[in-house]
């Protein structure tokens, strides 16, 4: 296998294939930069071009694009507090506060470096798991997948800070939004008002754009101050790289988590960054600064979201199970090139799989370098007066919102969710739990239904279910005790001040 | 309006929404109803708990913080975006974006006419190029110029 790996490197480094890979990288970075556009859009653009291409060249183009979407999407997340794509939602939590302190370059430097390392680790994981992948994928049944959805939901408690009840309400609100549209078990359309647009449910990018981008537009204009609030741009991207190196275990841990979570079909995509952020917050010492501009809050999700791509390719390529829209189109791309996903990709077609691994690694390195070079000019956006920046953003966001399903409902919902998001922001309601609840609602309902209909109550006794349940209880208990500890500490400090 | 009152009002509205969703869930087929029903029920109970907590806090402490100190400005800027969306519906995306951008830069950013023209023109070119190369779709409108 090692021999094939090095033989494939020669094929990948062929100048014409490198050219196509760079084309994919450029498109991927552009897609990531534009809020509302996802990897699915990029894949749809590239798909017609791969028809008839040799599979190595076609994969260089497609994987080059997929690999760097979550590198480019860090720019809007850090500089504007707007998620560039669903994988960079958690980066906002600390990336944007850092930009507000004038430390945008530091946050971006750390993010790009971690994205690169995460991407490489994702590629390595893809390489390492090839021999063991089949029994591992088959070990996850519906009960385990339902428990994994609950594990994601347990992050709500961690992200809610001092108001856990409000956080849980927000998470449940997100779940209710996720139930809009067709039910997974029976042909029933729920809460659609007979409006055809809602039959497929609300698109995730709209929720993210509405909750996070719209309030930013309004608040920036009302504050009449630039994002950096007059603070001078300090710190270089090198500081961010040094920060990442000093938190090397966090980078490694988050990348490994990203690769493993990406591996679970239908779960990884939008949850991995929150999962990684929540665990980093939970397990870090002195975590009070999370949410206020802590560099560890940037390192964790950014390491995970690029590593996820390597993990997500495992079920896609080996079993033809796409975990997301992007990987589903990738399967279509394989067919257009005369290939088919399946176990043959680790036997007779092994060189193609190896070329995908190399492309993933090389694209991540070049994508991160391109972004690092762009930091200085793009970071200046955070110093531009809002009245000169917001109208352009408004155009871009409305265009981005419309691309989610090319329906007027996209724009109307963007406005409605945006207003709700703005009110929540004013009332200090956490908005992140809504996204988590929304993302996990469909999979939680679907897997719960399958578990009950197939196993009755017996699924509760499966070893995988019990292990994940113990993990959930441990996370919730540690969150409770940490919060309690903090409260006691605060009261003691207050008493000390008063006395 | 004070922030604490606004918070209370929002909680009541959220409770009404959950209550309506719970009632509505009962009209779905059984397999489709249990998940939204129990989620809405749990959310409704928690909202009542949060509302009671909010009322208790309201009685205990005097909150002088306003919901928003500059609410009229908020309405103004929301109005700009709503106006832009209405304009898109009437004249189409490209023309509406050009008009919105030019007028906003001129009156809100107080840029010179020349700078406004250059910015608007450059944005229009970029939008058309993006549409061509990235195959982006534009919203349909009553009158279509492009």
Describe this entry's structure for a reader.
The model of chain A has no long low-confidence stretch (mean pLDDT 80). Chain A has 22 helices and two strands. Chain A has a two-stranded antiparallel sheet with strand order 1-2. In chain A, a hairpin with a 6-residue loop joins strand 1 and strand 2 (189-190). Chain A is mostly helical and 499 residues long. The longest helix of chain A is centred in the C-terminal third of the chain and has 36 residues, at 463-498. Chain A has helices at 2-12, 15-33, 39-50, 55-72, 74-79, 91-100, 104-129, 133-139, 142-153, 155-159, 164-178, 204-223, 237-246, 248-262, 268-283, 296-319, 325-336, 350-379, 386-403, 408-426, 432-455, 463-498; strands at 181-182, 189-190. In chain B, 77% of the residues lie in helices and 0% in strands. Chain B is built from five helices and no strands. Chain B is flat, with a radius of gyration of 24 Å. The model of chain B has no long low-confidence stretch (mean pLDDT 89). The chains are: A mainly alpha (499), B mainly alpha (146). At the A-B interface, helix 3, helix 11, helix 12, helix 19 and helix 20 of A face helix 1, helix 2, helix 3, helix 4 and helix 5 of B.
């Amino acid at each position: 296998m090692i021999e094939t790996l090095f033989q494939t490197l020669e094929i990948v480094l062929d100048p014409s294939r490198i050219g196509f890979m760079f084309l994919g990288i450029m498109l991927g970075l552009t897609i990531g930069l534009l809020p509302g556009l996802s990897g699915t859009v990029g894949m749809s653009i590239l798909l017609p071009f791969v028809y008839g291409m040799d599979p190595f060249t076609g994969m260089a183009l497609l994987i080059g694009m997929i690999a760097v979407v979550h590198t480019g999407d860090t720019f809007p997340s850090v500089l504007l507090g707007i998620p560039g794509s669903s994988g960079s939602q958690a980066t906002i939590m600390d990336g944007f506060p850092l930009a507000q302190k004038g430390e945008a370059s530091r946050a971006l430097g750390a993010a790009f470096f971690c994205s690169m390392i995460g991407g490489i680790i994702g590629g390595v994981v893809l390489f390492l798991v090839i021999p063991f992948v089949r029994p591992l994928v088959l070990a996850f049944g519906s009960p385990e997948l339902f428990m994994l959805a609950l594990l994601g939901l347990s992050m709500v408690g961690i992200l809610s800070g001092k108001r856990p009840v409000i956080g849980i309400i927000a998470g449940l609100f997100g779940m209710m939004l996720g139930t809009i549209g067709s039910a997974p078990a029976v042909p029933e359309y729920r809460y659609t008002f007979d409006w055809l647009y809602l039959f497929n449910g609300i698109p995730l990018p709209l929720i993210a754009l509405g909750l996070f981008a719209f309030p930013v537009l309004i608040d920036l204009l009302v504050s009449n101050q630039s994002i950096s609030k007059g603070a001078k741009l300090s710190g270089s991207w090198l500081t961010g790289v040094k920060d990442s190196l000093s938190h090397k275990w966090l980078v490694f841990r988050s990348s490994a988590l990203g690769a493993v979570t990406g591996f679970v079909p239908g779960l990884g995509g939008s949850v991995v960054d929150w999962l990684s952020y929540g665990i980093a917050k939970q397990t870090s010492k002195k975590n009070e600064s999370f949410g206020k501009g802590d560099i560890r809050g940037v390192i964790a999700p950014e390491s995970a979201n690029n590593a996820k791509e390597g993990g997500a390719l495992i079920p896609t390529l080996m079993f033809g199970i796409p975990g997301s829209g992007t990987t589903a189109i990738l399967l279509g791309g394989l067919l257009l090139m005369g290939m088919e996903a399946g176990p043959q990709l680790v036997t007779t077609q092994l060189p193609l799989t190896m070329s995908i691994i190399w492309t993933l690694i090389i694209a991540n390195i070049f994508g991160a370098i391109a972004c690092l070079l762009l930091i200085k000019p793009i970071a200046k956006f955070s110093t531009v007066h809002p009245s000169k920046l917001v109208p352009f953003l408004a155009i871009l966001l409305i265009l981005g919102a419309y691309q989610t399903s090319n329906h007027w409902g996209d724009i109307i919902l963007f406005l409605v969710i945006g207003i709700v998001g703005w009110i929540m922001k004013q009332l200090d309601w956490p908005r992140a739990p809504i996204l988590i609840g929304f993302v996990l609602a469909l999979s939680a309902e679907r897997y719960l239904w399958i578990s009950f209909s197939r196993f009755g109550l017996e699924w509760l006794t499966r070893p995988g279910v019990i292990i994940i349940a113990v993990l959930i209880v441990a996370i919730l208990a540690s969150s409770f005790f940490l919060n309690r500890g903090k409260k006691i500490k605060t009261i003691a400090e207050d008493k000390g001040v008063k006395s | 309006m004070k922030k604490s009152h606004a918070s209370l009002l929002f909680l009541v509205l959220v409770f009404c929404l959950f209550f309506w969703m719970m009632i509505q869930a009962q009209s779905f087929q059984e397999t489709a109803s249990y998940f939204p029903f129990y989620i809405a029920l749990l959310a409704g109970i928690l909202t009542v708990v949060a509302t009671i907590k909010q009322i208790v806090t309201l009685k205990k402490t005097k909150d002088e913080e306003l919901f928003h100190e500059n609410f009229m400005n908020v309405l103004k800027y929301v109005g700009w975006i709503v106006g832009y969306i209405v304009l898109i519906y009437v004249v189409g995306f490209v023309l509406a974006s050009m008009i919105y951008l030019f007028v906003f830069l001129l009156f809100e950013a107080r840029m010179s006419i020349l700078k406004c023209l250059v910015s608007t023109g450059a944005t229009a070119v970029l939008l058309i190029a993006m549409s061509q190369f990235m195959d982006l779709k534009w919203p349909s409108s009553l009158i279509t110029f492009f």
